[in-house]
Amino acid sequence: MLKSKTFVKKTRSGGVMKIVREHYLRDDIWCGSEVCAECKQESAVLQRDACIESNLCTYPHYLIPDTNVVLHQIDVLEDPVIRNVIILQTVLQEVRHRSAPVYKRLKDIIHEKEKHFYTFTNEHHRDTFIEREPGESANDRNDRAIRVATKWYSQHLKTSESDAEGLKVVLLTNDQGNTQKAEESSLLVYKCMWSMFSIRGSTDPFKKLCVSTNEITSSKVLFPEHLPLSRIQAGIKSGSFLQGSFRASRDNYLEATVFVQGEGEDSTEVLIQGLQNLNRAVHQDVVAVQLLPRNQWVAPSAVVLQDEGTAKDDDAEEEEEEKALRISAAEAASKPTGKIVGIIKRSWRPYCGMLNASQIKESTRHLFTPADRRIPRIRIETRQSSTLAGQRIMVAIDGWPKHSRYPNGHFVRSLGSAGEKDTEQEVLLLEHDVPHQDFSQAVLSFLPKMPWAITPEDMVKREDLRHLTVCSVDPPGCTDIDDALHCRELDNGNLEVGVHIADVSHFIRPGNAMDKEAANRGTTVYLCGKRIDMVPELLSSNLCSLRSNVERMAFSCIWEMNDKAEILKTRFTKSVINSKVLALTLSSLEVRFHIDSETHDPIDLQTKELMETNSMVEEFMLLANISVAQKIYDEFPDCAMLRKHPAPPPSNYDILLKAAKSKNVEIHTDSAKALADSLDGAKVDGFPYFNTLLRILATRCMMQAVYFCSGMDSDFHHYGLASPIYTHFTSPIRRYADIIVHRLLAVAIAADSTYPDLMDKHKQSALANNLNYRHKMSQYAQRASVAFHTQLFFKSRGILNEAGYVLFVRKNAIIVLIPKFGLEGTVFFDTKDKAAPNLVFDEEGPTLKVEQHNFCIFDKVKVTISLDASNIQHQKIRMALIDPVIPGVSVPAPDVEPQAKKPKLDR
């Protein structure tokens, strides 16, 4: 039977187009059940003996989940015990439109033969297709279509000329309205997760802990209603609402910022303060925000306020929040302030964390505390909280009702015991979305066969530079060496200087599995004691590593310079080099851990100073990146992969200028050069560490450097390097952006052929966005790894006394930097274990008066350092003030005996 569907569509020019589509209905679509003799089907999917071991459904049954059940409980449907499930076409289409990751997981389940999941095309079956009624929403129509298909299945199996007696069809839904209408139609319906909770025999005991929490509510409305999408869109169009990305604060759970991207470089940040104004938004959600009247604008809080993770009464918590906001309210209305009126797109994912067991005996309602402090606690229900005690687990959010202090969610899986190194490393990788799975066989299949050697055919296309003295300069133990240098005097008296970079693009060809995997990973991630490679180890540590005394393929940038270091000529070539050994040991400002070879625990921690050789190498690498950037932009102005560093807004420098002024030092921020010159000359007699502290503050003022496609932007300037154009060319082993730049340069010098994606500015721009995201996440993961190993280092050392400097001043605390360890910590003055001292905060200074002592930036202090492991998930480095001595505030200096060093073992 042929039906026609007619609808109108608005065109780009503002007109209206009438569209008629043919919709075919059939009566020969199989039901998929092997008990059915009526349908003509060769191989049925749904089994005759269809009975999962459930306390609720002791009879044979098929399950039909609605869309929300699939979206929110996909992990349950993946359990091996769940079988004989009918996935309706209506549900499949909705899931596809609403969540690509869940859709992929659902398709994978359907393809597993042992799961017996059957897709029924109800939208094309004559008896199950329904038209949308006048005034009926698309969602209500789809719910009705699911009920109609469920009823058809029930009747179809009953009337079948077979032994279907006793076989029932169960509709799974968490929607109360859908449940009520299904029961009115005499359908068998259950709340999905309550049904799953009653399952016996699941292979994973943790999966049985999942319980629906949609019913966990209170009668009190805590949050404003979210506006419907139609009103949000109209408001954005009229300008009464703004659309932006919600970014929760790490330090203050009552505060967030909505980043609103404008035209070109214009962007706005809207401050959100208070529980009701935050209105159930979760970090990284896309939200609609309404600006408050200007007389209600406030400044960001200077209070360090953290959600401690203890389960409290909602009313008591609200009182604390109101008090905190009164404390943090600023007199100066310095930032646009608003409130969340609706959610445009949720960015929820499974979150790592730990269960906060209820203090009420035999309670099934518990709070889950995410590891990421920007994520709110999540209420889940489980009868086996003792099993989860001390475990790192993953929990997904199901929803956030307006009368619930916390979102509701369900358990996903366990990661292992909290505190164990492997578990904590897995957590930080998951939390920072770092792809860390082993390389697949599809990826490894594109590696060159071993033994590998450069062939005569390779030499034909390359310049032979094996006769040059080429040196790599890297720290001891480095295996992914991707850059080397040479310098020689030419016959005309000029100097030839060359930068030689590993030719990774020779081995990774566009579009194959290895290339796609590298593009997705984006960067190599360096953790303490572990490296997660962007490319397989055969390339990163062998064939592409410019190791000494072996022939390697390279991409070379070579300059001819005069005795004033002025560049006379620049050329690029694919080459073959043979690097020589150089006895150079380099250091960096990063914290370095000395790891015990047996326990893999950190046994020493230190920072090291830069050597002049670092600067030499860095200068030539920067020059190579600038030279290549100009070349690829000249050749491909629309699709060059470049890197820019925006100039900070003047307000970013406020803290730097105030800090310098406190020591009578003047800093100029008109340009990057002016800032650099000012920092070079910033000195205070008797305070040798002043310049380092000032540079740390200057770094905090900077914006994030980002990759971009030249055809999608107009501002190329790199502020930090004071260069009009810049890119990344010098580290293709560990950065995918460099591989793209190598390909562009190879095409520019006719050393390789192009391909469509390379010349597509939209695809290049999308790639740049992913690279920016991966780079940012890798930085966060590295910092988290350092923080965890720092905690391990201090765990067995009791309380240490160290000198430090005040880096920032807050309303209730000072942030102290310990130069010896490169460690920052917070000294709180309003701790709960003692009476709060008299605190007076002056924002202009900024200064904090504690009793009779004034704290300013750069003040030298002495503190105790210890590990607070009372909260196993959020273990912290605690600092307490020793000097200056403030009665009732400072702590006495503990006796600290130097620990005997372990004897070195001969190995």
UniProtKB/TrEMBL annotation:
Q: Does the keyword GTP-binding apply?
A: no
Assigned keywords, A-Z: Acetylation, Cytoplasm, Endonuclease, Exonuclease, Exosome, Hydrolase, Magnesium, Manganese, Nuclease, Nucleus, Phosphoprotein, RNA-binding, rRNA processing
Q: Which GO terms describe its molecular function?
A: 3'-5'-RNA exonuclease activity; endonuclease activity; RNA binding
Q: Where is the PIN domain?
A: 61-180
CDD domains referenced in this protein's UniProt entry, alphabetically? PIN_Rrp44-like (cd09862)
Q: Where in the cell is it found?
A: Cytoplasm; Nucleus, Nucleolus; Nucleus, Nucleoplasm
Q: Which GO terms describe its biological process?
A: CUT catabolic process; nuclear mRNA surveillance of mRNA 3'-end processing; rRNA catabolic process; rRNA processing
Q: Which GO terms describe its cellular component?
A: cytoplasmic exosome (RNase complex); nuclear exosome (RNase complex); nucleolus; nucleoplasm
Cofactor (UniProt):
Mg(2+); Mn(2+)
Coiled coil regions in record: none
Query: RNB domain spans which residues?
Result: 462-751
Keyword Acetylation assigned:
yes
Q: Which InterPro entries match?
A: Dis3_CSD2, NA-bd_OB-fold, PIN-like_dom_sf, PIN_dom, RNase_II/R, RNase_II/R_CS, RNR_Ribonuclease, Rrp44_CSD1
Q: Which family does it belong to?
A: Belongs to the RNR ribonuclease family.
Question: How does this polypeptide assemble, per the annotation?
Answer: Component of the RNA exosome complex; within the complex interacts with EXOSC4, EXOSC7 and EXOSC9 of the exosome core complex (Exo-9). The catalytically inactive RNA exosome core complex (Exo-9) associates with the catalytic subunit EXOSC10/RRP6. Exo-9 may associate with DIS3 to form the nucleolar exosome complex, or DIS3L to form the cytoplasmic exosome complex. Exo-9 is formed by a hexameric base ring consisting of the heterodimers EXOSC4-EXOSC9, EXOSC5-EXOSC8 and EXOSC6-EXOSC7, and a cap ring consisting of EXOSC1, EXOSC2 and EXOSC3; DIS3 associates with the base ring of Exo-9.
Q: What protein name applies here?
A: Exosome complex exonuclease RRP44
